[in-house]
Amino acid sequence: MARSALTGTRVRERRLRIGMKQADLARAVAISPAYLNLIEHNRRRVGPELLTALSEALGVEETTLAEGAESALFEGLREAAAGSASGTPEAAAELDRIEEFVGRFPGWAGLLADRQARIGTLERTVEALSERMAHDPFLSASLHEVVSAVTSVRSTAAILAESEDIAPDWRERFHRNIFADSIRLSDAAAALVAYLDASQESETGLSSPQEEVEAWLARTHYHLAGLERAHPTPAESLVSGVADLASGAARKLALAHIARYRADALALPLEPFLRALAEDGPDPAALARRTGVGLAAVFRRLATLPEGAGPPVGLVICDASGTLTFRRPAPGFTLPRHGAACPLWPLYEALARPTVPIRAPVEMAGRVPVRFLTYAYSEPRHPGGFDGPQVVEALMLILPASGARTGAERPIGSSCRICPRGACVARREPSILAESG
Fold this sequence. Notes:
The protein is an alpha+beta fold.
């Protein structure tokens, strides 16, 4: 376990916090007070055995004193510095002193990281809402209906107010128009409010059957344990009474997903697959060779493992039109909820090159860009036989990148509308978050 140069600072902070004297701690871990003093001033490194003794004496986990305990905290502070106004030179110049800041002011550091996490959550919500406003067909149609009805009422009322001589039959006709348009306005507004109220359980709401299915899968962490048994739970029982699956269309999509999940579970039983994963790692090609099952099924199986059984995996699937038909997000890899995704994703490269496996490191745009390792693959099918059309489906597996940045990462985004890469050669529309210049 690697240890930070500030392990001593953490030891001292913890000792003072619990009111223990330096001599008492030195005696408890069988070293001299002078040597402990050198450790606390970061002038001596702490070995594994001594770290264990110190953690036991101080009543904390070893990772609390060792490097890596604040990794998430450090990332939050780096993100806060990267997102500061105009990227102030002072913040950039002190990035290498983050550990010192955390060691000396852990409370303030935690508060700042928490605030940054909250800002990030709110920004993602705003982005998703903006994207929904631009692409949600129901919301757009409802607003158009409201505006149309208001305009019609206003026009008719203006005629009545500005015209002094109107024949009684025409006046009666205008009154009937106003009444009909007011009813239309009331109905449109009520439908819009009901639609928004029905979707208030999530930050941006569920506007399609596919989103209902994705919400259901997210609650199960994409693992359906009832389908892993020799005698699986009936499909209808899995979708019956599920609040997320409110529409008949969503339940139909869920049943199709269950059928494919069960087929994958039969082809790749969970326990043998987990053993293969432990030996070969999450390399789809190696797992496909070992199990004798196609890459597409391996991709899907990796995305349906029990929580904690493998690395954090993301998976997206699209059809030949490029429309995303399945989305399991990976932490830090933003997936668009509406509209098209980034055209630079390896997913679309695979779509244009059926049966050719693609392995590509990528870097997702953001305040702090995040690296991933992606595997993409597409395969043609002929469900209608020789005389039927060819159906192509592409899949992209998303894994966290390991090791240092190599410079070979492909710069990508989520969707043009919310991608901050202003100079992207594949941009198809301006971004609401585009970098200046």
